[in-house]
């Protein structure tokens, strides 16, 4: 009898690759973010990426930053983590203790939202805003609220 395959990808890699796949849908020319929420039974609950709110045409959208807040993408884009939570159609109870896999370390607004949704762990790929005020606040929120965070990497193909 042939043995089973053993060189399968880990759960971490599986969920992070789902987050990366979601990020490929983002229209943001500067930073594409994907998020994948997996529960404690290794089930994917939801995925999301950074994009415009439904109804706001992302082809006509000004995807840059601007001094005038009216024309700055940051004031319009829904973040990947928020989209992943909002895309979920089940009970929020399912998110208790779940892990979010994100391609970018969550901002402080997302950190608050993740905490409030019951997420227990954040696994991220990139932390390109490490050390900024927003990033420090985010880490402070996660630490104080008992949400653990760790970085992982994906092997290049
Ligand atoms: O927690 C986060 C933080 C940021 N994003 C999104 C929002 C924007 O579309 C980009 C950031 O753009 P920059 O040009 O790098 O400022 O990333 C997110 O989805 N989640
Ligand atoms: Zn955010």
TrEMBL record:
Cofactors required: Zn(2+)
InterPro entries, A to Z: APOBEC/CMP_deaminase_Zn-bd (IPR016192), CMP_dCMP_dom (IPR002125), Cytidine_deaminase-like (IPR016193), dCMP_deaminase (IPR016473), dCMP_deaminase-rel (IPR015517), Deoxycytidylate_deaminase_dom (IPR035105)
Highest taxon of source: Bacteria
Pfam family, one: dCMP_cyt_deam_1
Protein keywords: Hydrolase, Metal-binding, Zinc
SUPFAM superfamilies: Cytidine deaminase-like
Residue span, CMP/dCMP-type deaminase domain: 10-143
Family of this protein: Belongs to the cytidine and deoxycytidylate deaminase family.
Protein's name according to its UniProt entry: dCMP deaminase family protein
């Amino acid at each position: 009898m042939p043995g089973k395959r053993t060189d399968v990808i880990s759960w971490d890699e599986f969920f992070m690759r789902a987050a990366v796949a979601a990020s490929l849908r983002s229209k943001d020319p500067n930073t594409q973010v994907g998020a994948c929420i997996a529960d404690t039974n290794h089930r994917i609950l939801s995925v999301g990426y950074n994009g415009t709110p439904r109804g706001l045409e992302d082809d006509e959208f000004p995807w840059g930053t601007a001094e005038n807040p009216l024309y700055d993408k940051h004031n319009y884009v829904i973040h990947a983590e928020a989209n992943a939570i909002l895309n979920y159609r089940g009970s929020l109870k399912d998110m208790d203790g779940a892990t979010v896999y994100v391609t970018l370390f969550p901002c402080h607004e997302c950190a608050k939202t993740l905490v409030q949704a019951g997420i227990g762990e954040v696994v991220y790929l990139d932390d390109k805003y490490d050390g900024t005020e927003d990033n420090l606040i985010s880490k402070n929120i996660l630490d104080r609220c008992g949400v653990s965070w760790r970085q992982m990497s994906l092997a290049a193909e």
